[in-house]
Design goal:
By secondary structure, the protein is mostly helical. It contains 12 helices and no strands. The two termini are 34 Å apart.
């Protein structure tokens, strides 16, 4: 709940500040950069606290709570960006419904959306415990490093999505999906061989795929929806992307039926199917 409140309010705040500065399309991207940087820094800090300081299951939570109190104090003193009026409520109006029903949203944006956080969570939730025995005594720190590496690469990769993006080919989305598939296959090899080095390689690839798919999805939404419908449409896109957070749970539930290398390879096969769908329909449905 806290993450949802903070992300939605922070994104709205950045959107209003960017619009006031004449950069109305930059709010969503800057919010994505800020979120990725915060997730990466928080994971690394938590891993270091848990590794080297006492009370590893308590101290990271207390530090986080103290930082939240500081953020609360700073936020209460910040000026209102909407001139003291409440923002418009979320409405699925005609433009939003038209955008969500557009073939490009259905066949290009949606198939790639679960890969955003699915790739990230596979990298920093699923893979580190599989090789924890290979880093005895440093498992918390290793998990924090993998999480920070994944999300930092994702932040760096998002501007690359802007360079690759092309409205008629969806090449940024396709590049992100190919990178995610490659990361899943490397992750499967890492799980099969208990390789710490391959986990780090997989984290880089999956982090890059996370950044590219997130950045390209925001760009697709910005091209499909007018500014008035952008918040509602972006909200729906975020919901589809957040479904990727269920990936570790799905893998854990099915782990009794097959080993993790096979499950990760199966995810890569599903990714190939989604890649085919996106590539098949991207050229024929320009915004």
């Amino acid at each position: 709940m806290a993450a949802g409140f903070a992300l939605s309010a922070g994104t709205r705040w950045l959107r209003e500040l960017c619009a006031a500065a004449g950069r109305s399309g930059a709010g969503e991207r800057r919010a994505a950069y800020a979120t990725g940087a915060g997730l990466a820094g928080g994971a690394l800090a938590a891993g270091m606290l848990a590794e080297w300081l006492p009370a590893p299951t308590v101290l990271p939570c207390l530090v986080h709570a103290a930082l939240a109190l500081l953020a609360l104090a700073a936020t209460t003193c910040a000026p209102e960006t909407t001139g003291g009026t409440a923002g418009a409520p979320l409405r699925l109006g005609g433009w939003c419904r038209r955008t969500v029903g557009h073939p490009r949203f259905v066949w290009v944006v949606l198939p790639a959306s679960p890969a955003v956080f699915g790739a990230a969570t596979v990298a920093y939730v699923v893979l580190p415990p599989l090789v924890a025995d290979e880093v005895p005594g440093y498992a918390p720190l290793f998990s924090g490093v993998v999480a920070a590496l994944t999300l930092s690469v994702g932040v760096v990769a998002q501007p690359l999505a802007v360079r690759l993006h092309h409205a008629r080919t969806a090449r940024a989305t396709l590049a992100g999906m190919v990178t995610v598939i490659g990361g899943l296959l490397v992750g499967a090899l890492a799980a099969y061989g208990d390789s710490v080095a391959l986990v780090l390689v997989a984290a880089v690839l999956l982090g890059a795929g996370y950044g590219l798919t997130l950045g390209s999805g925001l760009l697709e939404i910005a091209r499909l929806a007018p500014p008035s419908a952008l918040p509602s449409t972006a909200f729906l896109h975020q919901g589809a992307a957040y479904s990727g957070f269920l990936t570790p749970l799905l893998l854990a539930v099915t782990a009794g039926a097959a080993p993790y290398p096979a499950l990760l390879t199966g995810m890569a096969v599903v990714g190939l199917l989604c890649l085919w769908v996106t590539a098949r329909f991207s050229r024929g449905n320009p915004p």
